[in-house]
Prior knowledge:
Blueprint: H1 4-36, H2 46-51, H3 55-61, H4 67-76, H5 84-96, H6 104-120, H7 127-151, H8 156-177, H9 179-184, H10 190-194, H11 196-206, H12 210-217, H13 223-232, H14 240-251, H15 258-272, H16 281-307
Helix pairs in contact: 1-5, 1-7, 1-8, 1-11, 5-6, 6-7, 8-14, 8-16, 14-15, 15-16
Amino acid sequence: MMLSRVAERVYWLARYLERVENTARLINVHTNLLMDLPADVEVGWFTLVTIFDGELFFHASYDEINENNVMHFLLADENNAISLINSLSALRENARTSLDILPEETWEQVNELYLLVKSELSAISNRRRRQKLLLSMSERCQTVWGILANHMSRNHGYYFMQTAKHLERADMTSRILELASLLLAENRSQSMRAVEGILWSHLLRALSAQQMFTHSRNNDVNAEAVLAFLLRDSAFPRSLFFSLGAINRYLSPLPGAQKVIDHHRQSIEFMFENPQENLPAEEIHNRMDALQIRLAGLNTAIGQQWFYPVHSS
């Protein structure tokens, strides 16, 4: 078994790598979406802040909600723990301190990504340059995942990284699915109703799911079909069903995993004991919130089992 501090570093490396990629893609897609929507729709720049539960932190530092402030808060604000630059800094540090167990190209790619973002942060108010940077970030993160998949031995370090990736991915998918409560709300505006197809397509694109949805469903983009795909599809790697199942698969080879697996199984049963595609909007929101709490509990259980174990004397 690898040392607990090494296991913790590669675990968080994977969480931050997945977080950076997901955040970059979401902001990129959301920016494109807002260019296509009428001004009076209940989706705006601040929607991005709510996805990350950052409302209180934002209002503590910014007096006005606008594109520049939201972008600075999410991308460049070093006082914001959830900002992309802070996630990227943590990713870089965990890669730097794990050189002995990672493919050597990992550090090269992560460091180049960090330097690229640092050099471009001053230009994030320029939408075209920002979109280009976000696309480059997503592509470089995918390159790192490719290096790890193709050059890393299937050992405990790899299993910790894959567990972390799918835990982080499930968390992000649940946050994006919280938007469904807004799209399905009974009191949504007529403007919102008029562009529902665009909004559901945006939800798919935010998870790189649109093409696979079209291939598997072969039908119109609508609420029930999109929710069924993102919640329950067993073949798509970013559906909740797939991600939660993958966590279980990668936990299984780790020593002493049964207690954590039992904890995780409760989350899976909670999510899928009843169909959710036809739930009221508020209930979908509540289910996704509850899942995020359970995922945070799973993260704590993983830390207690392997990173900070308590040994009885």
